[in-house]
Amino acid sequence: MLSLFQEINTAFPWFFTGVFFVSGAIVGSFLNVCIFRIPAGESVVVPGSHCACGKPIPLWLNVPVLAWLFLRGKAACCGRKISLRYPAVELLTAVVFAALWHYFAWQIAVPAMVFVAFAIVLAFIDWDTMYLPDCVNAPFVLAGLFCAAAFPQLSGEETVFGSLFASLIGLGVGSMTAYWFRYFASLVFRREAMGEGDVILLGGIGAFLGWQGALFSFFFSSFIGLFAVLMMRIFSKKKRAATEDGEGECGSALPLGPWLLIAAAVYFVCGQKIIEAFFCFVGNV
Ligand SMILES: [Zn+2]
After folding, report:
1. What pLDDT, in 10s, does the model give residues 198-215?
2. Among 168, 208, 215, 243, which residue has the least CB neighbours within 10 Å?
3. Cis amide prior to 47 (ω within 30 degrees)
4. Residue 70 Cα to ligand 1 middle (Å)
5. Contact status, residue 227 vs residue 169, Cβ threshold 8 Å
6. CA of residue 7 to ligand 1 center, whole Å
7. Considering the chain, what is the average pLDDT of its residues?
8. How far, in Å, is the centroid of ligand 1 from the Cα of 26?
9. What residues are neighbours of ligand 1 (ion), with CB under 5 Å?
């Protein structure tokens, strides 16, 4: 079995990358369901895919990305616009899964795919609702601990226990950092500076990436958040001037979850290099 696997891999190096691209698109299709149904309190299993008009969607119109292109973004049953987000999430998951498989050892790629699947659901739900549901956050933390035990290579530890211990430390450091930041920031600003969900989320990031990953994500997320706010200010200037509504639209309340998760992804790919470059810079000043 394993030798067959290796033979295919040597003969067609892109074969499994393609397999993971297609699998990623299918997983992305399920993530879409989670993103839209979980905040509404609906089951992600039943009923099957259905249009906003209530009609069920046939299997052949459920093919990720391609169905949307074929239908040109309009539902076959009632002509309703289908959000660009559906194929975008499917394509994003497909590309990330394929890239992880192609560039990383499978012992690292597989837990990273688990992380990415949770990250996409959490980031979009937080963006939509400003709320991180426990029913996704809690499995995210458990998945982090499980992946640490099943794939010690992820943390670079030699033993399963070493890896699980590093994961638990990451969970503790991540959630405690967010907890105390939330506590003191609320005292200083006299309003909630960070959601309760963010405390669990940073704990989960720590469970996957260790305490260094949690701290990196915590600090780096503010840079990403600031950059995103700046971009939104620039690109929504006209709209804001027209509505005469300064705050609210993109100013005061922004979710933190997406930035924490993007920062965690950055740490996974090149966090060590950024930290080294930072200390090299500090050392030279
Ligand atoms: Zn319809």
Report:
1. 999 999 999 999 999 999
2. 243
3. yes
4. 16
5. no
6. 46
7. 89
8. 21
9. 51, 53, 55, 75, 77-78
pLDDT at 245: 43
| Rounded CA separation 64/120 (Å) | 16
**Which residue's entry shows tokens 């950092």?**
177
Could you tell me the distance, in angstroms and rounded to a whole number, from the CA of residue 38 to the centre of ligand 1?
A: 21
* Phi, psi for 65 (deg, rounded to 5): 60, -55
Whether residue 234 has pLDDT greater than 60? yes
Every domain of the chain and the residues it spans: 1-103, 106-285
Cα 120 from Cα 46, distance rounded (Å): 21
What's the CA-to-centroid distance between 76 and ligand 1, angstroms?
A: 7
pLDDT band of residue 254 (cuts 50, 70, 90) is confident
Q: What share of the chain is helix, strand, coil (3-state, %, to 5)?
A: 75, 0, 25
* pLDDT value for 249: 44
* Three-state DSSP class for residue 54: coil
Please give the distance, rounded to the nearest whole angstrom, from the Cα atom of residue 32 to the centre of ligand 1: 17
Q: How far apart are the first and last CA of the chain?
A: 56
Q: Ligand 1 centre and the CA of 50: distance in Å?
A: 8
Could you tell me the CA-to-CA distances from 27 to 57, 136, 225 in Å, in that order?
17, 16, 27
